[in-house]
# Entry
Amino acid sequence: MLQARDRDNALSVTGIPHTLDDARRLSKPASMANDVKTPARSKAPRSETSETFRFLLKLALVVLILRSFIFAPFSIPSESMLPRLLIGDYLFVSKWNYGYSRWSLPGGIPLIPGRIFGSTPTRGDVVVFRAPEVLDHDVIKRVIGLPGETIQMRQGTVYLNGKAIPKQRIADFTIPLTANFNAEKCGAPYVDVVANVQICRYPRFRETLPNGRSYEVLDQAELPDRDDTGLYTIPAGHIFVMGDNRDDSGDSRFPAPNGMGYVPLENVEGKAVVNFFSTDGDAEWLKPWTWVSAARWSRIGEGF
# Structure
């Protein structure tokens, strides 16, 4: 005799169900008996190459946005902005100060029509802008004149709207001769020796604009084509820029390709903010210890 707990699952030899539950189970259609839920297919794992590509694509997009609309790094290749900027300086430029144009984007991609959110720089600002098409590269200079104003050089002094900008003689500017600023760049008349070290020595002055902005400039010699000019009237939508190294700067005093001419506001890319690195050019890639010795640590963090 079957025990109670076994009886519910017992079948007779002839296949007749012993209980009502057995009958119900046997009477289910075959389609229901085989109706088993199929588990959802899991997504195939992405390959390592695919994941790396996606990461690099996202990183490139973030860098593009930062560089185009917030901050961009620039390096200084020439001496036209001495004494404030040296060859081998690296600086950050803020991109939002004067609005955005195609030149805010890498390579000048023409995705932005004209200029949006535009504003005019302040006299004395150090700005990065796109040079005329015949030169087609980024340039850094100081803003001296604004739209509608007049500029003239007389005996090395800047006249803004007919009034001389005060120019005060201060201590000479000196810099050691290094790989990226050698005796040839300095010029033989200005090479000096101090404590057995070769240096470059230039006459230095301080200019003060009507708005109170003050900065240092270099004036090496009396050069008529740079120190005595005609009267410039700045057209609407343009600015007049000059290098602080007045005798060694191709700026708005000269038309392209020798200079910049008047700079369209839509060519202005941003405002110089801070130095983040500087090197004297004596570093060698295969000698890592020279990366430290060649760095000009005291220049890091200098603002404008």
Observations:
- Residues 52-299 form a domain with the Umud Fragment, subunit A fold (CATH 2.10.109.10).
- The chain is about 15% helix and 30% strand.
- The helical segments are 4-7, 20-26, 30-33, 48-69, 183-186, 224-227, 289-293.
- The first strand starts at residue 71 and ends at 75.
